Amino acid sequence: QHGHIRNTNSAKEVWDNLEKQHQKKTLTTKVQLLKRICDMEYHDGDNIEEHLMEFEDLFEKLANAGSKLDEDLQVVLVFRSLPSSFDALTTTLENRADDELTLQLVKGKIINEVLKRREPSAVDSVVLKADEKKKSVGCFFCEKPGHKKKNCILWQRQKKEEGASSSEASGHREQTKVSKKQAKAKLAKSESEAFTFLASECATKEWIVDSGASSHMCANRKYFVSLSEPRQDTPKSVTVADGKRAVVKGVGSCKFSCVGGGGDEKQISLSEVLFVPELDMNLVSVGRLVQKGARVIFDKNGCTIANGDRIAAVA
To answer: Annotated region Disordered: where (predicted)?
Structure first.
């Protein structure tokens, strides 16, 4: 620093020169730190603890340089560094009250989410799953378990096509003309492809798959097989379609039935469902499914949900 005080005539000039030089260095440091913070990115599979620790270190260095960031801005910058696979989590956290959204809370939720993803996945761990447990009841027409002949879609379609009478006895005489190999071939095809929840054959038409929903939500108490008071990490309210806030009354698990394209009745189970009585429709969150490792595919035939190579459901 000797060069900065050379040719000065007073102590004040010395101080002023040193102060200017220090301010330049401090500004450069702030710019560099902010650039590093804004460039921070987390990729699935990285060490999340190291990622968050680096954020803390940069925030502290910036504060020491004279520019301490507000906590809400720190939270925003952490959210910004996460990939799209965390969208459901960030949306849920954003719905919390501002005074509850602390950096420590956010860090804890992010770490918990990463730890959940590291657990071994299984079909039962997918939030939306088809209950395919073998049942003692079997269909005499397609010879598949899980439903009776009178509820078999293949039987009903065949009965309608051949103009059979409404009685099952008469229908049975008509169906003997049909090759069981043909019925099995149709069923095998439906099992090798995604089974379809036909809108006209679904036990309830009140559930829709929503790519914008941050959580599974249900307005009807009758679909809950278990329901408890909102937990500490449960959002107190959610934003509905008209922009208003709807109160979350509880959280639990829901179950409803749909008929697959192969004629089987499927029990659909949802966990971590928010009980929001003010909703007009019950929502299945795409974000929650993806968060659990499921693949969600929309096409002209509907929406397919799969876990790995196995189809979990189609709506």
So the answer is: 163-182
pLDDT at position 122: 39
Closest CA to 148 of 115, 172, 114, 123: 172
As a three-state string, the secondary structure of 137-148 is: CECCCCCCECCC
Output the pTM of the full model.
Answer: 0.38
> Which helix (DSSP H) or strand (DSSP E) does residue 307 occupy?
strand 302-307
Taking Cα atoms as reference points, which of 76, 10, 67 lies closest to residue 34?
67
* Residue range 214-232, pLDDT digits in tens: 788 999 898 899 999 988 8
Assigned CATH topology for domain 123-131+194-314: Cathepsin D, subunit A; domain 1 (2.40.70)
With tokens 């992010």, the residue in question is 110
**Contact (Cβ atoms closer than 8 angstroms) between residue 183 and residue 199:** no
Q: Where are the beta strands (DSSP E) in 136-264?
A: 207-210, 217-218, 224-228, 237-239, 245-247, 250-259
Could you tell me the residue ranges of all domains in the chain?
Answer: 2-118, 123-131+194-314, 150-192
